[in-house]
């Protein structure tokens, strides 16, 4: 009998790769996304919004009608946000938290009755979750850090029920999200009133960080190994960026100085053009 798992964000690059890998290795996948994938052998598509309680509840009922229980929940659903913390709209700010943190919370809370001792919850966070954020990626880093801490706390609780919770902290992955980051950076460069010079300089950092991309299939393989582990650990990493690692090793004062040196406008450095 095949094992049943739920994958959120199943329509994205990493989610699709995971759906293909798990079904190819004997699992039945409930593939959840805003736009469901086509039904195929061992793939049950679910259309749901991870931030909407009624939508998630309907997905739960659909799974419960077909499955006696879930071996694992794998969380890919999330969004990338690039913007200034003092210029971003309240709506975009709140949306990032609703999806990146609220989504996993709502899915896990709703689907808990289908988990049992030995089940796994695997959450994809980011290598930024354990690092101090760079400028303009702050909100994304904050939500992923919160998600990482949520996962840790959830592991503390669910271990009492014999359920394992793990996080995979990924570096740059060659998915549509990287294209989205480029579009958001372009929009930020056009729209910022405070950081026009710095935003354009920030492109160099983004290009360097995202240059070392790995395919979604590598993420799917890593997730599969975590799911298959006899006693999976809490935190795993893949494709850590050496530049970010080196920056993180510096004392905080030095980190601030390095970023200021790279991104500060010459006018700002002279005390001019600091206000709009």
Mean pLDDT: 90
Separate helix tally? 10
Class of secondary structure makeup: alpha/beta
The arrangement of helices and strands along the chain is EHEEHEHEHEHHHEHHH
- Give the tally of structural domains: 1
**Overall geometry:** elongated
At the fold tier of CATH, the topology name is Rossmann fold
Question: Can you describe this structure?
Answer:
There is one protein chain. The chain is α/β, with parallel strands linked by helices. The chain has a single domain, classed as Rossmann fold (3-Layer(aba) Sandwich). It is 50% helix and 13% strand. The chain is built from 10 helices and 7 strands. It has helices at residues 13-24, 53-66, 90-111, 138-158, 176-191, 196-210, 216-228, 242-249, 252-263, 266-269, and strands at residues 4-8, 28-33, 43-47, 72-75, 120-124, 164-170, 235-238. Strands 3-2-1-4-5-6-7 form a 7-stranded parallel beta sheet, with helices on both faces. Strand 4, helix 3 and strand 5 (120-124) form a beta-alpha-beta unit. Helix 3 (90-111) runs parallel beside helix 4 (138-158). The protein is elongated, with a radius of gyration of 20 Å. 36% of the residues are buried.
């Amino acid at each position: 009998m095949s094992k049943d798992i739920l994958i959120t964000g199943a329509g994205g690059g990493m989610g699709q790769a995971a759906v293909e890998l798990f079904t190819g290795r004997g699992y039945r996948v409930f593939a959840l996304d805003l736009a469901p994938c086509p039904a195929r052998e061992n793939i049950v598509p679910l259309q749901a919004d991870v931030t909407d309680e009624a939508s998630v509840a309907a997905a739960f009922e659909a799974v419960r009608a077909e499955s006696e229980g879930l071996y694992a929940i794998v969380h890919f659903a999330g969004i990338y946000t690039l913007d200034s913390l003092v210029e971003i709209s309240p709506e975009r700010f709140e949306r990032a938290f609703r999806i990146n943190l609220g989504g996993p919370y709502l899915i896990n809370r709703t689907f808990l009755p289908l988990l049992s001792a030995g089940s796994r919850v695997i959450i994809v966070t980011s290598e930024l979750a354990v690092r101090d954020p760079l400028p303009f990626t702050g909100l994304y880093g904050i939500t992923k850090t919160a998600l990482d801490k949520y996962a840790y706390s959830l592991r503390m609780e669910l271990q009492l029920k014999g359920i394992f919770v793990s996080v995979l902290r990924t570096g740059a992955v060659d998915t549509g999200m990287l294209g989205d980051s480029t579009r958001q950076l372009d929009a930020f460069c056009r729209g910022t009133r405070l950081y026009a010079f710095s935003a354009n300089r920030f492109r160099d950092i983004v290009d360097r960080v995202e240059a070392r991309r790995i395919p979604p299939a590598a993420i799917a393989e890593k997730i599969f190994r975590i799911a298959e582990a006899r006693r999976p650990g809490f935190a795993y990493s893949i494709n850590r960026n050496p530049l970010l690692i080196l920056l993180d090793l510096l004392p905080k004062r030095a980190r601030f100085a390095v970023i200021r040196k790279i991104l500060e406008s010459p006018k700002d450095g002279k005390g001019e053009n600091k206000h709009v």
